[in-house]
Every structure is written in structure tokens, then in C-alpha cells.
Design a protein that fits this description.
The complex is a heterodimer of chains A (185) and B (85).
Chain A (H helix, E strand, L loop, with lengths): L28 H9 L3 H6 L2 H22 L10 H7 L4 H13 L15 H6 L3 H9 L3 H24 L9 H11 L1
Helix pairs in contact in A: 1-8, 3-8, 4-8
Chain B lengths: L1 H4 L19 H16 L6 H33 L6
Helix pairs in contact in B: 2-3
Classes of the chains: A mainly alpha (185), B mainly alpha (85).
């Protein structure tokens, strides 16, 4: 990516120089599952303490930032299904956020459509205070877009982290490196 | 003013940032770079530098795209001659 990484990705020897074969790190499916359950937990599990904490902090800030900017309405399994699929990469926390939104802000723009068959329009016209409170929590415009994007990108980035545990050229943790050197000696 | 006073963190949208929404791309770029470089950088002493470079490149890339699209919409498309019947 940056060209500064000393890792070899199976490049052919140049000028007859004998390069050692690229080291392959075994897949860690259990770490991948942990990484999905809580971003960064997979790296903490394999012994990458600092990397795990950085992933956890950055993902938490993206998710918290998304909800802070757009309110709970930015995670919506019912109406923004495609975005929700991307957001689900963050793990169970997104499902909890969706349940939270469903509780505090269940009114949706669709409910006001005549075809929806709900009584939301009439309740709004009648000045239902609970419905008006719910609508104040619904976000529109740029704040909704940016909030949704923050959490969707957090989910996709965590998916990259999860998939990295199946990458044979990923950076081995000190523990994995020590185990390999111990096994090879 | 009323909207700002009524703001409840994590419960109501932060409408105050609506006029400067594009500035939110900066923390976004930094956090994305933090996650990507946490799994890609081999020597963690180089981590901060790699994150700074990647975040700067993302923001510059977005800025370039914005300028190009603005030129296309404001200059390029209006310059297309209109064919009258």
C-alpha cells in the first residue's frame, strides 16, 4: 500500500538474490468472530494489544460520532436496509442501536403516507405530543447522511479487520511470532 | 437557537453542524485511517506518520473531487451549446 512495508508478498527474487519465502500466518477464525462481536477484541485476543485498542477506540468514536451527529435515526433496519447491512459489520452494538431507535423514535416518514394505512397523519394533525417528540428525534438532510455514513464505514472497516484474520500475509502478533520460532527451532 | 437549546446528545440530531457538514469529513478520514493502518503498519513506531499521511490524502482526494465536480457543474455543463429547434 505505502511501499514502506518490509513484508514480502511472494515477490520473485531479483538479480539472482535468494529471498526467503514469504511467511504465512495461519487463519484465526475464532479471532475473526471476536472481532465482529466487539471491534478490536480479535486483535486483543491474538496478542496485538495496541492495535486492538486503536481499532476499538476508532470504531467506537465512529459509531458514537454517527449517533451524536444524526441521532438514533441513523441506524434503521426497516427503512435503510442496505445501509444497515454495511453498519452490521460493527457487530451486535448496531442491533442494540436499532432496537433503541425503535423504542425512542419509531415514527417514520413512511408512516405519514396515505398508503401506509397508519393513523400517524391524523395524530400529527391532532397535535399528539408523543408523536411530535418522536419526530424531533428523526434526522433529515446532511446530518442524517453523515451520521449514517459514519456508522456504515465503521461497519465496513470492521469487516476488513475481520477478514484480515484470514489473510496469510497479515502482521503476526509477538505471541504468534514466538510460537512459530519456537516450533521451527 | 431553539433547535440548539433543545438538543439532547445521542437522542436528537445535531442540526447545528448542518451548515458545515463537509468539515465532518476530517475526523472521519482520521478515524478510518486509524483502523486501516492498525492492521497494515508493521512497525507501530511509524503508525502516527502513516495515519497522518493517509488521512491527509483522503481529505485532499475529496477536495480534488469536489473541485472537479464543481467545475463540471458550474463551467463544463453550462458551456455545452444548446441546440435550438
Amino acid at each position: 500500500m505505502t511501499g514502506s512495508s518490509p513484508r514480502s508478498h511472494g515477490a520473485a527474487p531479483v538479480g539472482g538474490a535468494q529471498e526467503p519465502p514469504a511467511e504465512r500466518v495461519p487463519a484465526r477464525p475464532e479471532a475473526a468472530v471476536l472481532a465482529w462481536l466487539l471491534p478490536g477484541l480479535g486483535h486483543l485476543y491474538v496478542g496485538h494489544r495496541r492495535r486492538g485498542v486503536l481499532i476499538l477506540v476508532a470504531t467506537a468514536l465512529l459509531v458514537a460520532g454517527g449517533v451524536l451527529i444524526g441521532g438514533p435515526d441513523v441506524v434503521d433496519r426497516r427503512n435503510d436496509r442496505l445501509w444497515f447491512i454495511a453498519q452490521a459489520g460493527c457487530g451486535p452494538v448496531v442491533f442494540v442501536l436499532d432496537a433503541f431507535r425503535e423504542r425512542v423514535s419509531p415514527a417514520q416518514s413512511w408512516d405519514f403516507s396515505v398508503r401506509a394505512g397508519s393513523d400517524a397523519r391524523q395524530r400529527y394533525v391532532d397535535g399528539d405530543p408523543e408523536l411530535r417528540r418522536q419526530l424531533r428525534r428523526a434526522s433529515i438532510g446532511h446530518v442524517n447522511e453523515i451520521g449514517t455514513l459514519y456508522i456504515a464505514l465503521a461497519g465496513l472497516m470492521n469487516l476488513v479487520v475481520v477478514l484480515d484474520f484470514f489473510n496469510p500475509h497479515r502482521v503476526p502478533s509477538p505471541r504468534e511470532r514466538a510460537a512459530r520460532e519456537g516450533g521451527g527451532a | 437557537m431553539t433547535a440548539t437549546l433543545a438538543w439532547v446528545p445521542f437522542l436528537t440530531p445535531l442540526t447545528a453542524v448542518q451548515p458545515v457538514w463537509y468539515l465532518l469529513a476530517i475526523p472521519f478520514a482520521v478515524l478510518i485511517s486509524m483502523i486501516w493502518k492498525a492492521i497494515r503498519v508493521e512497525d507501530m513506531r511509524e503508525y502516527a506518520r502513516h495515519v497522518s499521511v493517509m488521512a491527509t490524502l483522503i481529505v485532499l482526494g475529496l477536495l480534488t473531487l469536489a473541485i472537479l465536480l464543481t467545475l463540471l457543474v458550474e463551467v463544463g455543463i453550462p458551456a455545452i451549446p444548446v441546440q435550438r429547434p
